[in-house]
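step 4 of 6: structure.
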Amino acid sequence: MIIWSSLTDTEKQQALARPTASSSRQTSDTVAQIINRVEKDGDAAVIDFTRQFDCPDLTTLKLDAQTLDTLADSLDSSVARAINRAYNNIHAFHSAQMPTDVTMETSPGVRCELKYTALEHVGIYIPGGSAPLPSTVLMLGVPARVAGCQRITLCTPPNKQGSVTPEIAYAARKCGVTEVFLCGGAQAIAAMALGTQSIRKADKIFGPGNSYVTEAKQQVSLRPDGAAIDMPAGPSEVLVIADADANPAFVASDLLSQAEHGPDSQAILVSNSEALIADVKQAVEEQLESLSRADIARTAMQNARYILTETMDEAAAVSNQYAPEHLIVQTAQSADFLPKLKNAGSVFVGPWSPESAGDYASGTNHVLPTYGYAKNYSSLGLLDFMRRYTIQELSATGIKDLGPTIMSLAQAEGLDAHSNAVAIRLDALKEES
Amino acid sequence: MIIWSSLTDTEKQQALARPTASSSRQTSDTVAQIINRVEKDGDAAVIDFTRQFDCPDLTTLKLDAQTLDTLADSLDSSVARAINRAYNNIHAFHSAQMPTDVTMETSPGVRCELKYTALEHVGIYIPGGSAPLPSTVLMLGVPARVAGCQRITLCTPPNKQGSVTPEIAYAARKCGVTEVFLCGGAQAIAAMALGTQSIRKADKIFGPGNSYVTEAKQQVSLRPDGAAIDMPAGPSEVLVIADADANPAFVASDLLSQAEHGPDSQAILVSNSEALIADVKQAVEEQLESLSRADIARTAMQNARYILTETMDEAAAVSNQYAPEHLIVQTAQSADFLPKLKNAGSVFVGPWSPESAGDYASGTNHVLPTYGYAKNYSSLGLLDFMRRYTIQELSATGIKDLGPTIMSLAQAEGLDAHSNAVAIRLDALKEES
């Protein structure tokens, strides 16, 4: 247990430090080589890498529509119902985020517009690995669909049989994914960013992945002929603020939800109650016994931090400094307390709001800024699948009225041609009248 | 003149190609060294670099408030009035972009919120060089102020006398900039991203600059302890779509406005009228005679492209493929034509809307995606100075109702602890009832 008030400022920073996340030179070089190969050889390179890493017998990258349908139809009906229910909530919450265009006259005869439009083609990446992640298909596919993206390309590494799970197939079909390709890793990111014979170049790429995927997203986002990406990535994390009123078993279960994601997951409990901290620690030990992923969770919990503060205001300050991806608040008076909290990706309020609610089905997006990025990046939302542009139209009255202002500023910046573009129009209007 | 229909697809791509923008290894290494020095030595490093590049006698980085006031008060009153007028339009248009929080029940007892909050501390960079750029101070300072950022730090390279122009001082004071620092280049970006003794670390850095500034912004944006940045940068560009009805002198003046920005500026005219293209070419030559920056503009115009299309629909397709930063539309029926255009940063409609209107005073932002980024990045707006986060609160009813869905999905993904966090709560509710 860390007693916050006993720490110096430097010790406080250390207590909240995250593991170093710099990707190694080796990862960066490997990824650059993969991207180069995909750029040069297209599909052939992607198939080669996929055979090497995922499925030795793969022949075609595209999962044909009929196979997708058959797989989707084979999904257990209770899981299908759960996916439908989550889909509805995510759809409702992201539809409510639809922005409104702005049109106004800023001065007489000067009309300005801000317009929103869907990105034409988005690429979504779904990692493979031990478990399928249909929830991530929903979190990326639903807002793409709601935004009105014309094309949604999904890449995911195939299993050894050259296929995907029924869960992934069902969720992809449900979201109206345009095409599913059986490839993963840096080669999938390169294919979506640069395009190959069968995979069309996307405007923006979304989705989580391992260090190769993260590095590849970064590299393609720096190329003018590459693609935009959703946000920088880091290990997942939760910070729970709880007072003496909180239920220790609930708090423990939320810390463990985070911990089971991976051995590098970060779990932090901040409380003004020493008794609560002791009870949570005990509950963590008890609950660990029955988890299937107990090894992973136990490793992650070795880095868990239990921070004792003198007051709840101090607890809020700790959270604001850390800027957690997930912030769980289990306190007696949350309504008064919430306005003190800033810098979190998603906030879970009260005893009945476990992190898993937002991970799957409440309707909020589970793609969130990690690694302290909650200070300066947004949680994923509908707007990430759209772009804004402006329009202006001046009438003759508008340019007559605003023209001298424009000319004065252009001359102050020494830009004659800018001034001349107005002067030539004002002259034409004088001749007309 | 390029006859569009005579080109193959590859030739079309070449006709719209932009100059290569990869920063050299040397630039990248130099910038990395500057960032390292600033990280290690703070203010001392920034002052050293500033003495070396900008002002040999500089002793203090901060421009004190009294000097700023004196400079601002010394501004010519007609320029001050022009800045005020531009400020009002920009303020009005960015205020109209204020987003609305979303609150809804996605299912019974499941409340989800999307909230917007201002970034706490933004850094704005204003380049030095031959002319002061008060307009860029407005384009970055006004939305920061409207968003409600608590701290706005401005860095700009000092002149030889260790000061800034009255225009910059006036615009900075008008926007409520918190502090002005006399430094530029990669050292200014490093200082704002990492913090020094006198310059506090900012959450996000905005503003244009030369290749060192651009490279520095990119490097700090990749560091977890760095800062977010506004958007990738490239040379400025305009594409004009005009038909036989357009005024050739107006079109020429808009192409030249772009061309005078720098020798690498891109200017493209697309028209279905060969006569219009010939007239514009002649008008360009005539107008070039009287420009003070004729040398720069002439160099840029050597790379100008005049593209003849068969139809106006084809002209729209050319523009959509190029994705221009500025798109000027001077056609007989713009209302019918506009919906065909996509992929532009800012659109200028009709004969009385020169690009300089948006550069200075219409109210739209002049920080726009260049280099084809208009396909997947937004024009700068109020939302770039804010971030979004979500909140969810489930009631006992909410978790009872949605819990089985969450558990089903967690189990499908093999995440026991996620499921357990719900089960433990449902058990507690059963015991209560």
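step 5 of 6: annotate
 - Chain A touches chain B through 127 residues (CB under 8 Å).
 - Chain A has three domains: 25-98+114-228, 234-377, 395-432.
step 6 of 6: archive
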